[in-house]
Amino acid sequence: MAQSDLIVGKHTLESLTIGMYSDSFSIFREYVQNATDAIDSAVKEGILNDGEGRIDITVNPESSFISIKDNGTGITVKNAFKILGDIGNSTKDHRQNRGFRGIGRLGGLGYANTLVFRTKAKGDDKQISITWNCKRLKELLEPGKYRDYDLIRVINEVTTVEYKNSLKNDHFFEVELSNIDPTTPELLDVDMVSKYLESVAPIPFNFQTFIEGKKVKKYLLQRNLPLEEYAIYLNNSAKPILKRYSTSFRTGNQERTKQQDSIKDIEFFEHKNENGIAYVGWIALTNFYGSVTDDFMVGIRVRKGNILIGTKDTFSQFFPVEKDVANRSFIGEIYFFEKEIIPNARRDDFEKNFAFQQIQKEIQQKADYFNKRYRRDSSKYNSAVRKIDESKRELHEIVSLIENGGITSDIKKEQLIDKKEVIEKKLETNKKELSKIIEKYDLDEDKKYKAELYFKEAESLQKQIVNVENKIVNADYATKKDLPSSYSKEERRIYQIVIKVIDENVDECTAKMLRTKIKEELAISKKKGSRN
Question: pTM for this structure?
Answer without folding.
Answer: 0.74
